[in-house]
Amino acid sequence: MNYVVVGNSTAAIGTVEGIRSADTKGKITLISDESYHTYSRPLISYYLSGTLPVTKMYYRPKDYYKRLDIIPRLGERVSSLRLEDKSVVLESGETIPYDRLMLATGGKPIVPEMSGCDLRGVHTFVKWDDILGLEKVLKPGKRVLVIGAGLTGLKAAEALIKCGVEVTVVELANQVLNSILDEPAAALVQKTLEDHGIKFYLQTRVKEILGRKGRVSGIAFQDGTTLKCEQVVLALGVNPNIDLVNDTQIQVNRGILVNEHMATSVMDVYAAGNVAEGYDTIYRQWRVFPLLANAYKQGFNAGLNMSGLVRSYSGSFAMNSIGFFDLPMITAGILKPEGEGFTELIDTTIPRDYRKLVLREGRIVGYIALNKVESAGTISALMEKEIDVREFQEQLLKEDFDPVNYLKQVKNKTKE
């Protein structure tokens, strides 16, 4: 069997490991436009801040490709797909045939249609090369403006402030981390970042990036006011990188549409990770949610199916485990419920701690754990198993809540 994998991040690695768990002899060619050994993209902010050495960036050991008998084609870009004759075409013009193809092309940063985005000093914050570009121009005292207060923007801001530069974050929404926190939790995160010197402009729109002699000199807000800066980081999120499948028979919505086997609408072509739409068990629909663990699971499942085994992907739900300075947090699922049928349980008894559970039909469908995150694993397990917690829901946020004993009680009730 001749496998071709386009991509070299989490979903791609999951795919080759899924293949190799069932097929130790098939030929695997892995193609990536980045020249680096597979690395963990969420770690780039830690590398920039100097808290993580280069050696810790890699997602798998240095001998990984050799050990799994993979042919790496790093630093090479796939320019097009020839689905009719089952091959991919590189920018060099070389054609590589496949029996089974995986598209794990991930996401690409959103660049707004705004004047000044092509100036020197404008950066995105997705790949290692983005960080290397920033690293070269950062000097203590310089001013950097981050557009976007989502996870990427705030991790960028945290890393940048540790580099000794002045950091300002501009966000259109009325809170930071608008998609993964409610307002009270967001206020705590914002205060933590402000305490470390990061400035915020919320409910503010950037009209254009200003420049002088081809370089960034500042930004202009929609209301006409301006702010000086030497560097701008665009952190507005990512879109599925579906460029390769445009104008092909492969069906797309926001991302590439796949079935429960991670197969696309074209035979022998699969997709996984940020480029694909996975099944969200909480929202009960197929949608894009760019998460590391989910990308790996999708890739591994696809790899099994590509090798000839039949395995269904049962789906997952959005979960984020992250921290800013000394404030850890874990969030998952539905956090701002709309409509009827939801119950919210909130605990703010301890300053700087914030915990919230969202229930639907007696089952946990969302939670926020800020600062105190020890019980998050148990909550996630209850959420994943869709356990009815109504009988115990008032205990879930208590300090003396015993998750082990609780799960035993649930298990015993299930057996009865």
TrEMBL record:
<protein>
    <submittedName>
        <fullName>NAD(P)H-nitrite reductase</fullName>
    </submittedName>
</protein>
<feature type="domain" description="FAD/NAD(P)-binding">
    <location>
        <begin position="2"/>
        <end position="299"/>
    </location>
</feature>
<dbReference type="InterPro" id="IPR036188">
    <property type="entry name" value="FAD/NAD-bd_sf"/>
</dbReference>
<dbReference type="Pfam" id="PF07992">
    <property type="entry name" value="Pyr_redox_2"/>
</dbReference>
<dbReference type="InterPro" id="IPR050260">
    <property type="entry name" value="FAD-bd_OxRdtase"/>
</dbReference>
<dbReference type="InterPro" id="IPR016156">
    <property type="entry name" value="FAD/NAD-linked_Rdtase_dimer_sf"/>
</dbReference>
<keyword id="KW-0274">FAD</keyword>
<dbReference type="InterPro" id="IPR023753">
    <property type="entry name" value="FAD/NAD-binding_dom"/>
</dbReference>
<keyword id="KW-0285">Flavoprotein</keyword>
<dbReference type="GO" id="GO:0016491">
    <property type="term" value="F:oxidoreductase activity"/>
</dbReference>
